[in-house]
Structures are given as C-alpha cells and as structure tokens.
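A student in our group prepared the protein record below, which I am reviewing. This is what I was given:
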Amino acid sequence: MQALLSYDDAPPLSVPLRYFLTAPLFAILAGLLLLYAGPEILASRWSPATLAFTHVITAGFMLQVMLGALQQLLPVVLGANLTRPLRLATLVHAAITPGALFLAAAFLTYAPWLFAAAILFLGVGIGLFLWAAVPALYGIATSSPTLLGLKVALMGLSGTIISGLLLALALGWSLNWPVLQMTDLHLGWGFMAWSCIVLAAVALVVVPMFQLTPEYPAWFGQHFVRVTIGCVLFWTVTDLAGWAEAATLFAAATLACGAVFCGVTLNILRQSKRAKPDASHHFWNLAMASALLACGVWLAAQWLPTVNAWQGWPLLFGVLLLFGGFSSVSTGMLYKIVPFLVWLHLQNRASAGVPAPNMKKVLPQRRIDRQLRAHLASCALLMLSVIWPAWFVYPAGVALIIANGWLLHNLLYATGIYRSHLVAIEAARIRAQ
C-alpha cells in the first residue's frame, strides 16, 4: 500500500515536537524510580513501585510518542485534519503530562486525591484528543488498511482509558471490584487493541517508506486489524462472563496476533534494499524480536507449569514488551520522524541563500548509533535485573537514565538545527529587502 502523503496539511512543527521532547523525560524518571526503589521494584508485578514504574512508561513515554505521531500522521497520511491542531496539542499535552505524573505518584502512595487528579487530567487529555480525532477520521471512507487500523485503534484507546480510569477508582477508594480481572483486560486493551494496532497501522506506511522494504503482504493489511480486535472483544466478553477456558484461548489468540505482526515485520525488514542498515533499522529489529519473545514467554506461562511457577515471568514479559519492544520502536521512529519533519518545515521556508539541511545533518548518524548502544545496554540490564535484581537493578537504572538522556540530547540537537536555520533564513530575508 503506497501512502499518498499531503505535506501541505502538516501541522506546525511544535505540535508533535512538544510530545517527542517530553517522552524521554518520562523514561529518565523511570530510571530514577529504579534507583529509588532498588531491588524491591522487581519483587512483584503488584508492588507500588512496579506499578508506578510501568505507568511512567505507558502513560508517560509511550502515550506522548503515540499522540505526537498521530497528530502529525492523521492529516498528512490520511487527510484527517484536526481542528485547531496547535490549540489541541497545547491542551492535550498540558493535561496528559501531569496526569501521568499524578498516576505514578498515586501508585507509590495510594492517596485517593492523587488517583482523582490522575483520572481528571488523563481523562480530559485523552478525551480532548478523541473528541478531535474521531470526527476527523470517521468522516473519511475506510479506503486503506492504515485508515481502518487507526479507526480501530481509537476504539482501543477508548477501551484502555475507560478500564484504566475504573481501575484507578477501585484502587484509590478500595472498592470491592474484581481488580485482577480488570487489570488483565486493561493490559489486553492497552497493549493490543491500542498500542499494537496503532503501531501496525503506522508501520504499513513508515516501514516501507523509511526502511526501503517491500510492502506488507496484502493478507496482513486486510485481516490483521479485524482479527486482532475480534480476539480482544471475545476475550473481554468471555472473561467477564466467567468462562475461564474460553477467555484463556482468546487471550492466547490475541497474543498470537501480536506475534504474527512481529514475524511479518521481521521478514520484510530482512528484505530491505538498504546497502547498510541504519540505527533505525536495528531499533525495529530489536523491537520486533523482543515483542515476539515476550509473546512466547506469556504463551509458555499459560501451558508450561515450570514457567508458570516462576514468579518472575510477568516481569520478564513486561520488560521485553515495554522496553525491548515499544520503547525501541518508538525511539527508532523518532529518529526518522524528527529529522524528516525538521527538513520538511525548513524546506518550505528555505530561501535561495539558505537551503534546507540534509536530514543526515539534522541528526548525524554517529549520534544515533551511540544512543542505540546505550539503549541496548539498558534493555539487557533490565532483563538481567528480573533474574538477579540485587546485582543489576541499579546499573539498569543508570543505563536507562543515560540512554534516554542521550535520546533527549539528540532530539534537542535536531531542534537546535531547526532554530538556527530559521534565524539564518530570516537574516537572509532582511538582507534581501
């Protein structure tokens, strides 16, 4: 599927950039949480520090990158123009950023007022985004797998935020609700109906475009989204109905859909026409391999008593999926999207005397390669921390801070190139008068 891109509809650069520059700050905060809590953060998936750590990444890092990318991609790729994009970005970003911080603090303290603040800010922020995005998307006929995927992903985001807000109510006010059951469904909607589907929809465009690969197979584009959301819906219904065996089967089918996405993507990445794979290519390979392994860990735990008996398997699953998977692919996409946007906006403003810089000069490859190595080290140390927390949790925390501090530095470098060229363009314009 070839995307017909409409760059004239692109929002101002500050719209996605505010999200992209905020995301690494949350990953740095996750590293600080590791140092603060120490080995106990990996003692159980239910410990307060673990829940705070998880949501700093999901409601902080991942949500910032996803919403920033969507506000850029919806008008450019699909022609779904959001009303007043700059105002929308300002309000949504101003709501979800403190909302994620309140949520992390709420899990650390279990103070009801912090859960209330998280519910308010995250609910308002995501609600505003959906209020703008749903009419823009649903006013367009579903003519491509990407458009279908993003429409379904918005439904997945709605399910994720609703289940998450209900869980926050239950935890903050000690309500007698089935918290364990709600948590599993919240994870299913968040990881698969929202994150995986939106990633697959975006990958259909950005992987062939940026990685110079063949298109995704036609069968994948036609069936992946429908089968995945169908499995999530059947999982939800059977789980709420108390049909344990059926719920487990549909949960396994949902994870299998994720594994198929990873396998297909790895296969087309292998066919890239690049003479030498760049760092973004490696980020995608790492993400897909890690997520595929995470799916394998979950499936093994359901049917192999030895794996299920190991209390650390949910933590290993989470590290593989969040850091090896979603964090890696988000970082790889940032290294393609941000230099491209800087080049695009400067190209539109360039004068004869001040041409737009090459994308490789906006963010030199050596900078990205160094950060990639730091990211790999942080992922490896996090996995080792699950097995030997006393030995590796503190090095993992330091590595996570370094890797994402480096990411932030690289993104700020690209932003500095943009600003310096704007100054040069304005100076050339004044001289020409």
Residues 389-432 form the longest helix (44 residues). The mean pLDDT is 91. Residues 290 and 324 are 5 Å apart (CA to CA). The two ends are 46 Å apart (CA to CA).
